[in-house]
Design a protein that fits this description.
alpha/beta, seven-stranded mixed sheet
């Protein structure tokens, strides 16, 4: 009995230690090496107002901003950004960290393990952070790979942005999000549990994703460009299926966002009470009305549209014939879509679908948003306060203020005059730690 008791005590101690390692450090934990003083020449503290303030010092205590002081003050640990433009860390509301489109992508689908994908994702996470994105939403990856990467970043084991993750997309059998274009026995092996048919089965899929650890539910309401099937870009879920997904996700405290190109799928999802649309390529006047009626958000992913159109029309096209046809159809339409949405008063959150395009190039989306009619400030707002509101994380992202996490970036020029300055980030701090300093 004594040996059993000692063994139980040892297991309990190891479990407690493991839980302690997995618990993120509390926000604002006092630093053992004193305050850090970040002296800034120009700073956009709150993009909501667009006011650029001058000659400030951000006092960083632990992983939080403790104070914002006038002038250049401080002693001891000082970061000199007096010649730079400082602003909150950026938010990308749509990425895929565990892979990247390339000529070998279809082979990698059946040769990379979930562990491989997590390790590869760690590299892409670091690259994304160094590009100035301190928070991202990963919308579609193997559960085991992305949740492990998310948790490793939270523990501090891996350098990367804060990750909000959906895991596998909830999709229809045979549609976008399911496995397509391989031998039948291979597809049976690779089809995720989140694929469903019928309202009850789709409720099951959502609940399984929540159980697996999903922070947000991502569904594929329509066909998609990069699924290797000639199934088009129109609605794939039935209205009853969409309603059941949104209902059960909301009951379990999760937002639901939908990959959607065709207007029929966009409108059906918004009518079902969905929270946001990814892409939105063929949205129409009815869509704009539904966005406004339901206070939903659009994540336009213009960079993805630009990328797939360039690849599909170029000399080194590596897409399959099915993918090529859809890329040439949808990609060129996305700028005009975003312009019409913006003019119609649709709320826009910044998102790129990076992983389609190259990781680290996320900030190229800003110039595309400006081409679609947004001002540089509106584009910045979409990647800061707008994205934070869309994701319901206003208390920990999108602005710089006492009590907020010390997530900030710097560039040399003025992004309010030339938004492409954000493609040349020179300084990145996340949670009070410096990850880039040029």
């Amino acid at each position: 009995m004594m040996r059993i008791a000692l063994a139980f005590a040892a297991v309990l101690a190891m479990t407690t230690a493991a839980e302690a390692r997995q618990t993120p450090a509390p926000q604002g934990a006092p630093s053992s090496i004193g305050d850090l003083y970040v002296q800034v020449g120009r700073v956009l503290l709150d993009p909501a107002g667009g006011t650029v303030e001058r000659d400030k010092t951000l006092v960083i205590r632990g992983n939080q901003i403790a104070e914002v002081r006038d002038g250049f003050v401080g002693e001891g640990r000082i970061v000199d950004l007096r010649d730079s433009f400082v602003m909150p860390g950026l938010i990308d509301s749509h990425v895929h960290l565990t892979g990247q489109q390339n000529p070998n992508a279809r082979l990698q689908e059946v040769t990379w393990s979930n562990a491989d994908q997590a390790m590869i994702g760690a590299g892409y996470a670091r690259k994304t952070l160094e590009a100035g994105f301190t928070t991202v939403v990963d919308l579609g990856a193997a559960n085991e790979a992305i949740f492990a990467l998310r948790d490793a970043v939270r523990r501090g084991d891996v350098a990367g942005p804060n990750i909000i993750a959906s895991g596998s997309s909830v999709s229809v059998h045979g549609g976008h999000g399911d496995i397509n274009g391989y031998r039948d026995d291979i597809m049976h092996l690779l089809s995720p549990e989140s694929v469903c048919s019928g309202p009850e089965d789709c409720r099951r899929a959502v609940r399984l994703q929540v159980r697996a650890g999903a922070d947000i539910i991502k569904i594929t309401a329509t066909g998609g460009v990069l699924s290797n099937t000639a199934a088009g870009l129109a609605q794939q879920f039935t209205q009853d299926e969409l309603s059941s997904i949104v209902e059960v996700a909301h009951r379990m405290g999760r937002q639901v966002t939908a990959h959607a190109h065709g207007a029929d799928g966009i409108n059906a999802f918004l009518a079902a009470g969905g929270d946001s649309i990814e892409h939105g390529t063929y949205l129409d006047d009815d869509s704009i009305g539904l966005f406004r009626q339901h206070d939903a958000w659009l994540v336009p992913t213009l960079l993805a549209g630009d990328f797939v159109a360039r690849i599909a029309s170029g000399p080194d096209n590596f897409f399959t014939p099915n993918q090529t046809a859809k890329a040439l159809e949808a990609g060129p339409k996305m700028l005009d879509m975003a312009r019409r949405a913006h003019e119609g008063g649709v709320r826009i959150a910044f998102g790129t679908d990076t992983g389609v395009s190259a990781h680290g190039d996320n900030a190229q989306e800003f110039a595309l948003l400006v081409r679609a009619g947004l001002t540089p400030l509106e584009a910045i707002q979409a990647a800061t306060i707008g994205a934070a509101e869309h994701l319901q994380i206003q208390d920990r992202a999108g602005r710089l203020a006492p009590g907020m996490p010390a997530d900030l970036i710097a560039v040399a020029g003025d992004p309010l005059s030339d938004v492409t300055e954000l493609e040349r980030v020179t300084f990145v701090m996340k949670g009070g730690e410096v990850y880039r300093d040029e």
